[in-house]
Design brief:
Layout: H1 15-23, H2 27-40, H3 46-56
Length: 63
């Protein structure tokens, strides 16, 4: 399966929804892990990573 942004499970840009589909996890679980890692780790630039993934991950062409 190719890593793409989700068009169905999206809150902002579909990045976490796409990662969830790729990993086989629930979108809630991916979002929770992402927020926890972003808050608890000073070295993890969460907003920058999200923005990069938003622009680098293609949209899901099936939807």
């Amino acid at each position: 399966m190719k890593l793409t942004r989700s068009t169905k499970n999206r809150v902002i840009a579909g990045v976490c929804g796409g990662l969830a589909r790729y990993l086989g996890w629930s979108p809630f679980r991916v979002r929770l892990v992402y927020v926890l890692v972003s808050i608890l780790s000073v070295a993890f630039p969460g907003i920058l990573v999200y923005l990069l993934l938003w622009f680098l991950m293609p949209k899901d062409p099936e939807n």
